[in-house]
Hints:
The structure holds three protein chains of three kinds. Chain A is α+β, with helices and mostly antiparallel strands. Helices cover about 60% and strands about 10% of the residues of chain A. Chain A has helices spanning about 5-20, 30-35, 120-125, 130-145, 160-165, 170-185, 185-205, 220-225, 240-275, 275-290, 295-305, 310-335, 335-345, 350-385, 390-400, 405-435, 435-440, and strands at about 40-45, 50, 60-65, 65-70, 80-85, 90, 105-110, 110-120. In chain A, helix 9 (about 240-275) runs antiparallel to helix 14 (about 350-385), helix 13 runs antiparallel to helix 14 and helix 14 (about 350-385) runs antiparallel to helix 16. By secondary structure, chain B is an alpha/beta fold. Chain C is mainly alpha-helical. Helices cover about 80% and strands about 0% of the residues of chain C. Chain C has helices spanning about 5-30, 30-35, 45-55, 60-95, 95-110, 120-125, 130-155, 155-165, 170-210, 220-230, 235-260. The interface between A and C is large, with 65 and 64 residues.
Amino acid sequence: MTAARSxxxxxxxxxxxxxxxxxxxVSSETIQKIADAARLVSFNPGTxxxxxxxxxxDVFVIVRGRVEHTLGxxxxxxxxxxxxxxxxxxxxAALLKTQRIRLADSLALEETQCLAIDGRALLRIxxxxxxxxxVMSRFATMIKRDFHAPDWMADLRPIPHEVRxxxxxxxxxxxxxxxxxxxxxxxxxxxxxxxxxxxxxxxxSEVWKLPRFSELPGPVAVIQEWTSKxxxxxxxxxxxxxxxDIGVSIRRVAIGFSLATALGIPxxxxxxxxxxxxxxxxxxxxxxxxxxxxxxxxxAIVMFSGLETPVIFLTFxxxxxxxxxxxxxxxxxxxxxxxxAAYCLGAGRWKVFRHVVVPGALPFIFTGLQISMGVAWFSLxxxxxxxxxYGLGYLIMNSYTTVRYPTIIIxxxxxxxxxxxxxxxxxxxxxxxxxxxxxELSLGGTS
Amino acid sequence: xxxxxxxxTGESRNGAVEKGAIRIDDxxxxxxxxxxxxxxxxxxxxxxxxxxxxxxxxxSGCGKTTLLNxxxxxxxxxxxxxxxxxxxLCGPGKxxxxxxxxxxxxxxxxxxxxxxxxxxxxxxxxxxxxxxxRKAANEKARQxxxxxxxxxxxxxxxxxxxxxxxxxxxxVRALMNDPKVLLLDExxxxxxxxxxxxxxxxxxxxxxxxxxxxxxxxxxLEEAIFLGxxxxxxxxxxxxxxxxxxxxxxxxxxxxxxxxxxxxELMEETIEAVHEEARKAFxxxxxxx
Amino acid sequence: xxxAARGPTLRRGIVSIAVFLVLWEIxxxxxxxxxxxxxxxxxxxxxxxxxxxxxxxxxxxGYWQSCFLSVLRVLAGFFAAMIIGIPFGLALAINRTAxxxxxxxxxxxxxxxxxxxxxxxxxxxxxxxxxxTFVTFLGAFFTIVLNVIGGARSIDVRYFxxxxxxxxxxxxIFRRIILPGVxxxxxxxxxxGMGITWNVVVAAEMISGGASQATGAGGGLGFFIWNxxxxxxxxxxxxxxxxxxxxxxxxxxxxxxxxxxITPWLRTH
Lengths: 447, 289, 269
């Protein structure tokens, strides 16, 4: 009953499918996939293609011939019988959600050829086309309108969920990106860059001993010191002092940053949200902002007692400005249309604040938080260098004054790593909270 | 004024349609950007029947969006009044209407909240108004989405779907509130013509089930005649109804209407007027540049 | 910042600043006026004292010299950052190989706070001035490069396609599409970089100015502030802070105006 198809036949079938009502909106690629998945079947005149009650697997598209389609009890009273011509689609019971049995008798009135497509395969193919859901909608329309079937009969299966919106889970997307990255020349060039940089440093300071460079500790010295159990200058990954310094710095940043976030975000939100509030508060804010954070050092020492508090204050201040400003910009960046839509839909002012302002400003808020984290480290190091006890900034400064040069580099590198890690942490939290943005960006944005 | 209803299939809302009559009464809107008074709407008077699909056609920048915004409550009126079912929305003493769920807007570039899932978006209205609790709202949302052929998208975010699907979701979101009027501001402007034709049929399907008054702004005359009971052609800025066309093609309509002779006749009647205004707008734009 | 504000906004702004000053004055004099010291504010010198000290400083040559020195350092470091940073950023943006090779190294060095480089810088560079300038340079360099790369990437790819279809050479494309397309981002990067530069200069002056007075170098407003603290003249601290604030603000505004001038097409009517 099935026959192999020649090239011309394939072309003809492609055209036929393209012209069939439900498939008119899909891409040529998808039509091709459907055509490839279809089987060409022939029926002699007078043969029943299928009967009511039989299992429904295939959807049929008539290539040649005529089919008499009799919808069983349950259809409307008039027009029980339909005469189907080439190009028409029948057998759609294969796509129904609830029952996959034939609801009609189909009789081939003359020599008939059809393309038979397995219902499940069709759904899968449609799932990969972006107009897939439109096709299903058109099927439903066709069923109700052309076949005069009642609403319940056009209850079609949904397209397979996991393929439909090309949803890629975070993990699989990451794996995909990593494998793509590894296959490109990028990682190798990256290592070349590192090698050149460190190589030059090494050669200049330790091998060729170029002027000026010879004073600097070279990478070999630094690494030796860093990894030695008995470091010459007292700091390595095996000494507890190292971790003490790291811990102290992190603690200070954590406190400063958290306070800045807790105060900065609400302030920023209100500054963006309420014209009145902004008019009163922003001028003072802007007045103090140009003063470099580090110019506050002496005043901070005067204001706060002890050695810890001024340092934390400076960290806080820098972070606070960055967070508040970016939050405010975030609120301002929200398209006015969203506000209008929310008001239309009956939301009151506070509901709008909670459901539009806060989530709408989140992308900017998190960019601000990353900047704020960077600025916090910046201020912390400066504050520690000027007046601190313990901490990485202090370590670096102290190493300099006590002529322990390799430790300076150790301190710098540690700062870089810890600074990067904390920023990355903020970014990860942001990505987690803004799933919608991650997904949108991973799809390259949609129209 | 009779409307050419024709035979109606599908269920209609309690038979006769009673609410959603809009009366625009001698409305004038003057913008005052930096002191240069700009007349946007010039003594516009229009009456829209309950349940009518009223299409507003005009060149870009003519002020038709201003009218829509005034009805919705986003802009104020300089003079005149607008009534909804004999209740004054805005007018003397109250220049700006309160935005509300009885007149929901579907925006040109879409306004589904990107940070909410489709389901949360659709059930937003009733939940915010406190009319339904979240569970009931979600159920109603699923039902309405299924009616509109949108099942399966509930857990996606708007950014993952195509614009055609997003537009349809937005219309469902609007209808969840049982509005009297649906205000559509060139909603299909950015879609390609294939998707547009599908959107039109989808909109009509929804309309046949719900019978809301539809106030639809477009610059596409074909779209206007295909969908509307009446087509109001506006002059270029300041806008004012120039010509009103009664589209006597019976509902329900499908895409075959587009090639019907009557459709062509109606196009011929109106295209001259539309083209004239378009040319005026183009030249006005040139001089201001 | 000081843009022409409409009626109520301007009024409210003036009111809030006035209130701020009044509260500050009261708080600083709390011990004398209220009998108890309000924490924090109580220790800060009062605005009235600050103004008085400032008035006398305006005649002091040393004050102006400090201002001048700081501004000089800022400009030196900043321009070095622009001169090196812009070409570097453009090179990375245009050439994929260069980007893949050097950007990771750049990103690894970026989180290290500029001030952490101070000791290494002092060891390396022969003079104090150069070491401060180097650290200043670093501060702005990273920001500017990042902005240049971001700006180049955001140029709509259709401009390139249009240019190629009209037969432009690569150099033409660089000159007429990339450069103008990147200018706005450079302007932004410059403004932000300027802010960072001031921070770094002040800190560097505080740190190294205090550490090596003997060489006669140092000075600048950062050192001025630190010295005021050490010397116990607190109102001078505030004078120094405000002076830097003004200088910083003026330089940022200057940059912004310059940026607007070289990108006239961004102005909307």
